[in-house]
Amino acid sequence: MSTSQDSLPTKTAQQMSMDGDEPPSKYIINNNYTDKFGPLETSPPFAQVPIIDIGCFLSSSKQYGQQIELAKLRSALTTWGCFQAVNHGLSGSYLDNIRQVIKQFFELPLEEKRNYFRETGSVEGYGNDMTYSENQVQDWCDRLFLRILPEDQRKLRFWPKNPLNLRETIDEYTKNIKSISVVIFKAMAKSLDLEEDCFSKHFTEERDVLQGRFILYPPCATPDQVFGLKAHSDRSGITLLLQDPGVEGLQVLNDGKWYMVPVIHDAIFVNLGDQMQIMSNGIFKSPVHRVVTNREKGRISVAMFTEPEAEKEIGPVDALVDERRPRVYKTVKDYAAFNHECFQKGVVALDAVKL
Length: 355
Ligand code: OGA
Ligand code: NI
Prior knowledge:
This protein is 26% helix and 20% strand. It is α+β, with helices and mostly antiparallel strands. α2 packs across α5 and α3 packs across α5. 40% of the residues are buried. Bound molecules: N-oxalylglycine and nickel (II) ion. This is Fe2OG dioxygenase domain-containing protein. InterPro entries: DIOX_N, IPNS-like_FE2OG_OXY, IPNS-like_sf, Oxoglu/Fe-dep_dioxygenase_dom, Plant_2OG-oxidoreductases.
C-alpha cells in the first residue's frame, strides 16, 4: 500500500472552523477537480426515500401489513438503495444519547484527542481521510474510525477513554445494530422470495465484522466549494447511519441526479453497500452518496458498517442467478482490500468485479 502521500492534518477541520479559518486550498474543489458524479450542489431537492416500518418484519406471520412493507423495501432497494427505518425498537432518547456521547468526544481538547490519532497509512483512529494522491481533495470533517467486531480485533488504544461511557455506549449500540441488521437482511431475502437466511448467513454465520465511523462536520465558511465527504459508495454489506437531527448534509445520487436526504429525528438511515449489490446479483443498489457542509451548523453522524468476513468468498446468491438473469458479478474474497486497491488505481470496484 502506498502511503507516502498520507499525513495527519496539521490542523483538524474542527480547529480551523473554531479559529474562523477559510478552508485551505487542498480542501477546495477547483476547476481541475472533475467528479464523474457531477458538481457540488448545496441544496438539491429532497430525496423521497421510502420510510419503512421495520418493526413489522419482526413477526413471522405473513400478515398483510408485512407484505406491504416488504414490497416497499424491495422497491426502495432496487431504486434508491436506501431507506429510512422507523419502528426499529430504539427510542429517540436512546439515539440522542449516542449522538451526545460522540459529540462530547469531539468537544474534548485536541491534546486529549491526539492520543487517539490514527497512524499514517492506516484509517483506524481519530483524524482525517487517508491521502492517496497529491491531487486528492480533502474532506471537511474529522472522524473516529473503529473496528468494533470481531471483538478480538479491537485496538483499544484508539478507543477513547473519555467520555467515560463511550466504550460502553458503542458496545451496547453495536448489539442493537446487529439485531436490527439481521432483521433487515432477512426482510431483504423475503422481499425477493428467497430463503430467509440467504443474506444474513454471510454476515452472522461465524464472526460478525462491524466498523464504526463517528464523524464531525464542523461549520464551513465556504460550503459551496468544499465536500464534507466526497462521493462514494460504501464497501459494506449494509450501513446504518444516525444523522444529526439539527442539520441535513447527506446527499444520495439517483438516476444521475443528486438529492438531499431528509432528517427524520428518530429514524435510522439504511443504505446498502457494494457487497450486497454483488450478493443480490445487481438487483439491489449500493447508492453513491456524499456529504455537504453548512456555514452555520456543525453536524455529527454515526455510521455502522457491517460486512462479511474477509476470508469468505462472496458472490451472487444462487437463487438469483438463472437464464433470465445471468450472473453479473464474479466471486470475490476480501472485498475491503480489493476495494482499496481499486480506489488507489482510480477504478470503481463494482465495475472491476463485473463479469
Ligand atoms: C460514510 C458516510 C454519511 C454521513 O461514513 O461512509 O457516507 O452522513 N457517511 O456522515
Ligand atoms: Ni458512505
